[in-house]
Design goal:
about 170 residues; alpha/beta; Rossmann fold; 5-stranded parallel sheet
Length: about 170
C-alpha cells in the first residue's frame, strides 16, 4: 500500500488522527516533527531559534526523501512541508495525500497554550495563524482529499479518512 500523508496547518489533528488511522489500518505511524527532534537531539523550537526556518525546512525535505522510499506508512507532515513544490510532488508520487483543515479560530483555541510551536511565538498569534493559513491555502488545496476537522471528533475524521483511503 502507498503511504498516507496527512498535511494541513498545526492544530488540525494530523498527529491524533494519524495515530488512529495507523492503528486501524495496522500501519506504522511517523510524526515528522518528532522524527526531526529525535534525529537532531533538540526540539523544533530550538532548531528554529538556532538555525532558522530555512534549515528546518531542509531537514524536513531530507526526512521526507527517506520516508517516501518506504511503504505502508501513515505520516503526519509538518504544517509547511507541502508548500515546497518538490515535497508536494514527492507526497503525491508516493502516497495518498489528505489535508486536515479547521478555521483559524479553532486552530488558535487548540494551540494557544502550546509553547513548542515557533511560528506562534509572536505578539499576535491568531493573526499569524490567519496569515499563514492564507499563504498556505494553495498548497493544501492540492491534496487528494480534504477533511474538515472543525466540528468532528478524531474518530469521525478517521472513519472518513479510511473510507477515502479504501475507495
Amino acid at each position: 500500500m502507498k503511504n498516507v500523508y496527512l498535511i494541513g496547518f498545526m492544530g488540525t489533528g494530523k498527529t491524533t488522527v494519524g495515530k488512529l488511522i495507523a492503528k486501524a489500518l495496522n500501519k506504522v505511524f511517523v510524526e515528522m516533527d518528532e522524527e526531526i527532534e529525535r534525529e537532531q537531539a533538540m526540539p523544533i523550537s530550538e532548531i528554529f531559534s538556532r538555525f532558522g526556518e530555512g534549515h528546518f525546512r531542509k531537514l524536513e525535505g531530507q526526512l521526507l526523501a527517506r520516508i517516501s522510499q518506504r511503504q505502508d506508512l501513515v505520516v503526519s507532515c509538518g504544517g509547511g512541508l507541502a508548500c515546497d513544490q518538490d515535497n508536494l510532488n514527492t507526497l503525491k508520487a508516493t502516497g495518498f495525500v489528505i489535508c486536515l483543515e479547521a478555521s483559524s479560530r479553532t486552530i488558535y483555541e487548540r494551540v494557544k497554550s502550546s509553547t513548542h510551536r515557533p511560528l506562534l511565538q509572536v505578539k499576535e498569534p491568531q493573526r499569524a495563524i490567519e496569515e499563514l493559513l492564507k499563504k498556505r491555502q494553495g498548497c493544501y488545496r492540492q491534496a487528494d482529499f480534504t477533511i474538515d476537522t472543525e466540528a468532528s471528533t478524531p474518530e469521525q475524521v478517521v472513519a472518513e479518512a479510511i473510507k477515502v483511503i479504501n475507495a
